[in-house]
Specification:
With 83 residues, the protein is an alpha+beta fold. The protein contains two helices and four strands. Helices cover 30% and strands 35% of the residues. It is globular, with a radius of gyration of 12 Å. It starts with a strand and ends with a strand.
Length: 83
């Protein structure tokens, strides 16, 4: 499994409640794609959400977002923790 970090620009007018709902939808179907979302961060001032996941591929991580709610990230990166 690879660790991925993705970045979403939050569209104007999207509420915190809508973001929380999208997160819940990701969690509800992540297993279908063999993905496990680990953390989410939201920077309201910049209008950005970051998602950290373990996934078998970049495509699997993206498929969760696509199928759960359609809010696709602007970027997704394979990352490794530095010890």
């Amino acid at each position: 499994m690879q660790t991925y970090l993705d970045r979403h620009t939050v569209p104007q007018g999207v509420t915190l409640e809508a973001l929380l709902d999208a997160h819940a939808r990701d969690l509800a179907i992540q297993g279908k794609f063999g993905v496990r979302y680990l953390k989410y961060w939201y920077d309201a001032a910049m209008g950005v959400v970051f998602c950290l996941s373990l996934a078998p591929s970049k495509e699997a991580a993206l498929a969760v977002h696509r199928d759960a709610h359609g809010l696709m990230p602007d970027e997704i990166f394979a990352v490794e923790e530095l010890v």
